[in-house]
């Protein structure tokens, strides 16, 4: 049950593009008794505002063209808000009243006023709430100019602006929260006075503010400021959204959008939806739309690497994933893998990418053990260990062969690794050395589960390297179970691809 405080101040979202449009009424969400139908009337004889100070003289009924426009605009508002709008002949039964009149301010072509009355109990709870909104179009200074408002004319947009007020929106330049000057124009919100062309649909900020107010499921329902769950529509820019209590809908819109959660990755359950992702945990059961990344206290989840991985062949994906095994005996982090997928798509050959891995090994010397003064022999031994499972390094014949290749320039560090990887795969099914290929395949499988199917990154590069090595070390030629256990997610959480 709403409280008196709810009536006197907007319930803010902390998002400027929404809060700059929130008026403190009319509070249709607080209608008591509650209902999801708002009634409107064109009556000029009943239910009209006897107290309105914004108009002078008598009222004239809306024209047929005006009424047709009202029906169309209410259809849009119904789709945005989830509220039903029903016409009644008797103005006394209506919540929203339309009339043409002489608006007192000579500069105003339209004017909307609203009133409300309520009763409350001793605990400040609202026991009865009614509101009225009055939408006037001027017919004196502006004559007949706005009395035939078809879509695509300014008169139509004017009516949309006034109905925005009737639904609880204010001008973005008035009140304590305002839009920055450069954003205050009608491409963003029809509540602006800065005209950019003529509009027949509400702007993105109007939709965000109306969705914040009503949740898209009308007055009451599960979403909106009257409900436990909130429906937040963010901006077209890169947004960072902090998840909060309640079962919410969080829509990032365009841009690279992050939703932050308070707990560890493993304390949440992620489920794919047809249009987004459901995240269940400490902050409730949230539906995420158009979000590119989740941030948890220990890990972050890349939600775009899955489609990137699908954009190249599975074999090429594996060739990239196994470079992490060959050079560092680790699983990749999703962001790093996504980066190399994009370089590969740009045309960078695998051998050259492998060369970059070698340079990265030197750059992260402390974690990888690579050093700029590493001998060719030390490097070859490491690759034998990582790729071929030879714990004591290369045999003398192999060592001599590859060392000569490196010193003569016939091989680069990158080509040497891709050649040894290719030879490891030739052992597949071999009676004695089949395990070499099986071990490599199992490491690739864990790499793919970690970086693509779960989209995981630890929150620091150093941790991604160190824990990535520990996870890979748990893989055997016959099992990946211990590696999956070390990642710490239930098997059904590798579900993003
Ligand atoms: Ca609602
Ligand atoms: Ca965004
Ligand atoms: Ca939530």
Overall structural class, as computed from helix and strand content, comes to: alpha/beta
Percent of residues in helices comes to: 25-40%
Count of individual beta strands:
16
Instruction: Figure out the total of helices.
Output: 16
Please tell me the overall pLDDT: 95
Strand content: 15-25%
User: What is the CA–CA distance across the termini?
Assistant: 43 Å
Low-confidence stretches: none
Radius of gyration: 32 Å
**What small molecules does this complex bind?**
calcium ion
Q: How would you summarize the topology of this molecule?
A:
Blueprint: H1 4-8, H2 16-19, E1 37-41, E2 55-60, H3 64-81, E3 84-87, E4 96-103, E5 110-120, E6 126-138, H4 154-166, H5 204-214, E7 231-233, E8 240-242, E9 249-251, E10 258-260, E11 269-272, E12 277-281, E13 284-289, E14 293-295, E15 299-302, H6 305-310, H7 314-328, H8 334-345, H9 350-363, H10 365-368, H11 376-388, H12 396-408, H13 413-425, H14 434-453, E16 456-458, H15 461-473, H16 481-487
Parallel strand pairs: 1-3, 1-4, 4-6, 7-9, 8-10, 9-13, 10-14
Antiparallel strand pairs: 2-4, 5-6, 11-12, 12-13, 14-15, 15-16
Helix pairs in contact: 3-4, 7-9, 7-11, 7-14, 9-13, 11-12, 11-13, 15-16
The protein binds calcium ion (3 copies).
């Amino acid at each position: 049950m709403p409280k008196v405080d709810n009536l006197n101040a907007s319930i803010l979202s902390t998002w400027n593009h929404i809060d700059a449009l929130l008026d403190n009424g009319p509070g249709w969400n607080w209608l008591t008794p509650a209902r999801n139908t708002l009634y409107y009337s064109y009556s000029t004889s009943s239910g009209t505002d006897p107290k309105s100070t914004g108009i002078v003289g008598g009222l004239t009924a809306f024209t047929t063209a005006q009424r047709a426009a009202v029906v169309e605009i209410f259809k849009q508002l119904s789709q945005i808000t989830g509220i039903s709008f029903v016409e009644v002949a008797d103005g006394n039964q209506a919540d929203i009243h339309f009339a043409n009149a002489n608006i007192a301010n000579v500069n105003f072509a339209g004017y909307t006023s609203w009133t409300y009355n309520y009763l409350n109990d001793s605990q400040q709870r609202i026991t009865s709430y009614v509101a009225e909104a009055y939408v006037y179009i001027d017919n004196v200074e502006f004559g007949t100019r706005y009395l035939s408002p078809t879509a695509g004319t300014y008169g139509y947009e004017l009516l949309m602006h006034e109905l925005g007020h009737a639904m609880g929106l204010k001008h973005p330049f008035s009140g304590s929260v305002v839009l920055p000057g450069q954003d205050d124009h009608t491409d963003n919100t029809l509540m602006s006075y800065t005209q950019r062309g003529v509009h027949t649909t509400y702007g993105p900020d109007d939709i965000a503010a109306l969705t914040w107010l009503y949740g898209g499921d009308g007055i009451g329902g599960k979403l909106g400021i009257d409900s436990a769950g909130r429906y937040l529509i963010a901006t077209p820019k890169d947004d960072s959204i902090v998840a909060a209590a309640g079962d919410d809908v969080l829509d990032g819109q365009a841009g690279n959008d992050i939703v932050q959660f308070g707990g560890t990755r493993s304390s949440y359950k992620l489920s794919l939806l047809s249009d987004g992702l459901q995240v269940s945990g400490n902050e409730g059961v949230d539906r995420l739309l158009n979000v590119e990344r989740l941030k948890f206290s220990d890990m972050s989840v890349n939600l775009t690497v899955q489609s990137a991985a699908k954009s190249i062949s599975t074999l090429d994906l594996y060739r990239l994933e196994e470079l992490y095994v060959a050079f560092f005996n680790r699983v990749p982090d999703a962001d790093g893998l996504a980066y190399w997928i994009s370089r590969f798509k740009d045309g960078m050959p695998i051998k050259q990418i492998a060369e970059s891995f070698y340079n990265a090994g030197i750059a992260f010397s402390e974690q990888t053990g690579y050093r700029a003064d590493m001998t060719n022999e030390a490097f070859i031994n490491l690759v034998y260990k990582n790729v071929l499972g030879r714990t004591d390094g290369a045999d003398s014949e192999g060592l001599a062969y590859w060392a000569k290749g490196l010193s003569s320039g016939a091989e680069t560090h990158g080509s040497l690794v891709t050649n040894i990887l290719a030879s490891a795969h030739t052992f597949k099914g071999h009676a004695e050395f089949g395990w070499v290929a099986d071990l490599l395949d199992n490491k690739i499988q864990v790499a793919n589960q970690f970086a693509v199917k779960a989209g995981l990154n630890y929150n620091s590069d150093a941790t991604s390297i160190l824990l990535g090595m520990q996870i890979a070390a748990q893989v055997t030629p016959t099992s990946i179970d211990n590696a999956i256990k070390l990642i710490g997610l239930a098997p059904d959480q590798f579900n993003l691809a």
